[in-house]
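Q: I have 101 residues here and want to know how they pack in 3D. Can you give me a structure?
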Amino acid sequence: MELIAPQGHFAVIDDPAALDINPLKRKSASVHLAFMFTGSMSGIADIAEPGTLLNDLSRVVDEGASRTLAEYFRPINATNLKRACPDRKRQGQRQDRVGGF
């Protein structure tokens, strides 16, 4: 949790046995939960959006404009994530573009 910047974002796509969010609360961090079947189970309006994002990402990868961190930095851990993103102005900064980390 120490890697999350104040007002940063933390996403959970798995089902952790326990998750203490108190450290995130003290940083006013956002916690985002994702469940693969939310759209189909609840009939959300933007159900096609994940497919659109995945198509955009696959195009960027096919064009060679994006690669996975695992291709460069193994294992994936905090130290290697910092090495992979040296141009970030502050930890936890959001990048709003396909292929951005």
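Q: Anything worth noting?
A: Confidence is low (pLDDT under 50) at residues 90-101. Residues 44-85 form one domain.
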